[in-house]
Design goal:
Chain lengths: ~325, ~325, ~325
Amino acid sequence: MKHYLSINDIDSVSEWVEDALTLKKDPFASEKLGKQRTIGLLFFNNSLRTRLSTQKAALNLGMKVMIMNFGKDGWALEFEDGTIMDKGNAEHIKEAAQVVSQYCDILGIRAFASLKNQEEDAAEVVINSFKKYASIPVLNMESSLSHPLQALADAITIEEYKKSVQPKIVLSWAPHPKALPQAVANSFIEIMQLQNVNFTITHPEGYELDPKVTKNSRIEYDQDKALKDADFVYAKNWSNYKDYGKVINQDKNWMITQKKLGGAKFMHCLPVRRNVVVEDAVLDGNQSLVIAQANNRTFAAQIVLKKMLETLK
Amino acid sequence: MKHYLSINDIDSVSEWVEDALTLKKDPFASEKLGKQRTIGLLFFNNSLRTRLSTQKAALNLGMKVMIMNFGKDGWALEFEDGTIMDKGNAEHIKEAAQVVSQYCDILGIRAFASLKNQEEDAAEVVINSFKKYASIPVLNMESSLSHPLQALADAITIEEYKKSVQPKIVLSWAPHPKALPQAVANSFIEIMQLQNVNFTITHPEGYELDPKVTKNSRIEYDQDKALKDADFVYAKNWSNYKDYGKVINQDKNWMITQKKLGGAKFMHCLPVRRNVVVEDAVLDGNQSLVIAQANNRTFAAQIVLKKMLETLK
Amino acid sequence: MKHYLSINDIDSVSEWVEDALTLKKDPFASEKLGKQRTIGLLFFNNSLRTRLSTQKAALNLGMKVMIMNFGKDGWALEFEDGTIMDKGNAEHIKEAAQVVSQYCDILGIRAFASLKNQEEDAAEVVINSFKKYASIPVLNMESSLSHPLQALADAITIEEYKKSVQPKIVLSWAPHPKALPQAVANSFIEIMQLQNVNFTITHPEGYELDPKVTKNSRIEYDQDKALKDADFVYAKNWSNYKDYGKVINQDKNWMITQKKLGGAKFMHCLPVRRNVVVEDAVLDGNQSLVIAQANNRTFAAQIVLKKMLETLK
């Protein structure tokens, strides 16, 4: 049984990227693989791309899809062990995960970071509890700490558009009016570290991500220096990691402009705040890859589901 | 590529009606046409008939269906160009429409008139923005100004029940406690104008619809005169067009009664307020076609989708 | 045409249980039976097991599934006859049920007891109105008074785990912080009465259920006496029937503990409040059947749908 919870669950990024690009040429080639297989997609948070692309990927593989807005349509879940459940939560994750496992062959879970309790977010309580109690493979559709379907789509997109063997790729923090999770940045960093690229992270001082994620990736606080000669610029906001979940900087100078971009390709996971994270000219110009990235979400999900299906007995 | 946004997208009403009636006899005849095709149905407003009948029509054609309550499940959309998106709206329509286009082959959109801003409603901002930025055909599941799937179902129903070559058809305004859009009335008027019928509109003075829609259709303010010798009476409330979106008349005398109906067939798009728009005796009698109309929603959607599918490469 | 509204719609419990167990061994054996058939699942209340297991059962039979959160996605329904509908409710059940019947072959309805108006709940207004006006078979996915899919799953589970011809089965009331319906208890009692079992109901004095349901089933107010030598203990809270819908007892001594359970198997319909209804040790031990019961929801629904499909022309 094969979970897909983080970038670590990819045994070879380059192989998976190649496999995804092969599959993209003929998306229905494996439509018998998922016959009589059902995926349950449980959403604890809003979703557009993940919801539709994962569903599409499963349908391309011939699977049946059951979708639930778990928080709204089901019962409020209790995650603590040993609780006397006489308050608002009606169902314990132990039962929920075991029960749902019996109706599905693969389980997709989307549960964002709360950004309120760093310890709980770090523990990935929701998805790890499903992993712990489910008897079927679990697919991460964005958890507190990671968004590995997005990162795989990003790697596929870079493979399609790169013009040199070792492109220069920059992940640049960008301003945002709201506090956002670190998941997308984390997974992008992790997948970059596994590839033959020249990778730089740039963000305002104080906005350091978890050092267990960034490891020895180059961090350059001067955005201009970081962006110099970049082939790909990936913009993404994240809220503060140290002063956890806070928005301590909204410096508009960090917005990606056409001038800053130079000749690089522009990347973002979407949804994107226009003229806050990046100016219109970039998104509306021909250096933007954001639509291509979103398209590759289908094929990232499809290669992951294909590999998960192949391990089912 | 063929959109279905208004009655104007029908090249021949009589042919489409005939095709729909043929298809109704054997709804699964084209179930291979939609194989490996996916329709995305995006709802910005509540729906019963449209939601189920459009879904059913797509399934009859062998399509996959992905449904989203867009406002609740996805991200709040920004429609203005050039905005600095630092407020509530998280995603711009430019990205949303392009992205969704990549997961689907046809896109259905339901977005009612706000009834607050006449200019915005007249511009059909939501559906026209999807049309503008989507790379796939767009299906109108009721927009600010029109509801062409309903009107086509109405035309199919009239064809089934008419007893003369040129039946007399009356669209009668009816009272309603809430402000409702003009979309259903508009599209019904438009499809009547394209057919060989004796057509009259009746409503209280001051409740004139957009003259660009009513054109030279006969308007008769005296409901009794209008209804005389009618073969079909279509009741429908709409809020005021001039004093835009207001309810300036709730005169109960405009309710359709069995007595007013005479020997005519009764039509309404549903949902209908019993004993406000029309009295129970009419709906519960055998002159009511409202259930037949709702049934024909499936076949209206199916003929439209069939024609859209046939234009896909 | 065959409805499944209550245990009374089962002609032979033992045969249906056997049929379900046969079908469980090869769930896809009848996947052609539901071809070109559509089930509509309309939810007026939250659901996890019922939503997923009924959907799964229909998919196993090759059916198409259309799901609606009726209250949220559609229109507020009016159930009164003769009302002047000038208030909040936009659509009358008469139209809604007839309309939906035209888009589906079978209609599943979930509508809980309000616990506010005993007379209305007793009349099963929602599901009985659908039954009255729908032109297709109606499936009870939990109504005010009964939950026959759950009870059938329970009977299947008991058949799988029983070790004697006539096992001793005890339905024990359990405390709960909220007022819950009597539906699960009612249907469990009804299905027990139709089987060759030694059946006892235990609850605090004053918590008697409808005597038309309990009939001459043994009621024992002393929980210890009731549980003695039990083979199966089914715990379930229900709110008061006489002082209708009230929570008049939260006595923790009624919680099922490992000690009380003895050597019996433990059953509950889920979701269950841990350490309120039953202690962790029971649910986490190997005498608990709650996960097996939830699994059998699929096969209970599947045998019911199979029998309903077989009666369709």
